[in-house]
Amino acid sequence: MTTDATKYLSHLELGEREQTFLDSNELIINMGPQHPATHGVLRVILKLDGEKVLGTECVIGYLHRGVEKIAENRTYTMFNPYVDRMDYVAAVSNGLGYCEAVEKLLNIEAPPRANFVRVILTELNRIASHQLWLGTHALDIGAMTPLFYTFRDREEILKIFEKYCGARLTTHAFRIGGCLYETYDGFERDVKKFVDFVRPKIDEYEELLTTNRIWVERTKGVGFISPKDCIALGVTGPVLRASGVKWDIRKAQPYANYKEFDFEIPTGQNGDTYDRYLVRLAEMRQSLRIISQAVQRIPEGPIMAKVPKVIKPPVGEIYHSIEAPKGELGYFIVSDGSTQPYRVRVRPPSFVNLQALDLMVRGQLVADVIAVIGTLDIVLGEVDR
Amino acid sequence: MLDYITSYLNANVTPGQAGNMFWAFVYIMVVFLGISLAVVAMNWLERKALAHMQVRLGPMRVGPHGLLQPIADAIKLLLKEDIIPERADKAVFWLAPFMVVMAAFTTYIVVPFGPTHAITDMNIGILFMLGVSSLGVLGIVMAGWASNSNYPLIGALRSSAQMISYEVAMGMAVVSAVLMTSLNDKGIGTLSMIGIVQAQQEQGIWFVFKYFPLGLIAFVIFAIAMVAETNRAPFDLPEAESELTAGFHTEYSGFRWSLFMLGEYAAMIAVSSVAVTLWLGGWLRPFPNTLTGPGWDFLFSLFPGATFLLLAGFTFLGVMRMPKHPYFKIQTIGLGAFGGALGLIGLILFVPLVRDRVQDIYWFVAKVAVFMYLYIWYRATFPRYRFDQLMKVGWKVLLPTSIAALIATAIVGVVLK
After folding, report:
1. Domain range annotation of chain B
2. Shortest Cα distance from A329 to chain B (angstroms)?
């Protein structure tokens, strides 16, 4: 008996199941929304031939909160905390993207000191996001231990956030026009200490996994995606870079003050899960590089630009994108000249990257679906918004 | 009646061989309770050791250092609602966990804890052991089938494929060990578990070191295959949590689920004892042939007591490191009492009469404990194999290697004779 929910899936070409000897027909499995490895409430309908995946269909929307619609009923300032709740793993990046988009619309610029603080916090958040990804990805593939190591180290980042703005996850650290809070005493020292602390820890993760035979076998050649397909699907972030495309918005369309820092864009060649793993680890190291440069050069000065009390951008529209840990995070804001945005559209990297799932797992095995969901690094809060 | 009971006391064979039903029954009870206790202890140890490898504490709340956690869990599981899915095949669903437990526990009939400390000794002991332990897969397949659900079905299919594949390599490794028993003057080998250990004693070498590295290869193959046989990480595909939620026991809960766990851990101990018996000299103490003489005998006989005193020492160290707050008073006292009990057992084990009796059991259990620790270690270290890779390792690596090792053992055995 097929369940009713799967009937509408046209492209899986379900139709009537064939009755064969011993009833050995294809199996349709609902993976999720309650499943330990779908990273939240993603539901993937799998069509299986034994262990082989014949096709997948993602069903999303279980975490839909209508963030974009909410924006139309809030002022620009009031909407700011909502963006943190989209990609709650990298809330700081979300805030940065939104604040910069509105700033562009208002035609103001954050002061240099604010930019430095923003870069430090965003890059810290990138490390935290990648650490969480690494832990859960490894757990999906069956390695339990890295999860606890990465969470132990991520805690140090969250402590810095907590000291800076009082929140650990949904930080709401940035405001339109700069940052609300001045850095606390010892902020630089804490960040420097963290950089020294986490550098050997990244080597430790590598020691656990990079040359681990089973890890390599489970990830090499799994979930391949070609650069052409990546570009066609609009896949961005580490997934794109692991396929060999050197595209990082921090370099391509620099925002904040990324132009001032010296860092590289790590890329892979094979476009498989193993390369994506290596690219993300290299990115963590590059982030450390940026942080240590920024924390040394952090200038004195105001932390907030002169922003009108009531934010009322002129009529117009703006698209601004930043390089979030998961890929290109874009905000398209239409202003009708009032205090509330006429329309806000978010381009979430997770949602776009998730579209590559079917392409990546067709013809592979069930276990690979899990590995690929992990390697795409999706956060359902962002997919569903 | 009393004569019947006492008549066995001077026998130097197992109660099963002596045909003494009373003592056989006593041994069965002791082994059953001992294994159940070992499973409980293993449960706690696994959680603690795994936790410490993963920079966390593990159970700490129920009892000092979580010592009572397995008991609390057992009570919780027993009191849980017993759910049988509506569409399940109820009879098979009911029977499956018992199959797993029965298969795991029946194997202990032939496990030799010492030259006389076994329920019975069969002349086909190792064959019996392998045969019965592979019945466990039947329970798993039954569970997966009867649940009438997709995930358990896939788990059960994986499980049966995996067990059949690894059984072959495992069997080949076992054959090469059995072959080694026949390399004596008479040229007669044995399949009896006790006989295999005695053969190692006579030949003066543990089979793991015999014809280095041939014995070692067979042992390593067995050690890998037995992890796959018991569905443990990195071969835990049938219950791969991240893929199949809980695999074949997804639909099970409460007491039935705990039976699966009991069966799994009992099977782990069972296959470890096979490995110990075949390659690591079973109950023999280290260097039984080179370090001989009453002095060495005496020294090695102190090990059981010393081990328990060491454990007691660690426990008392834990007592000293307990927080001094009155809130922890009862826990501190409890931990102290536990340490005291361990110390007392240690002291009793120094009594000459006891010392000589438990020595064999001690060495056997110690060797099995090493394997149990390895199981935990694997689980903390390795990611999970994928199904096709698992099959590849089984058929393309382990099987050819084990056959090659078997042939090489035979050739070397003939040549060197």
Report:
1. 2-302+350-416
2. 29
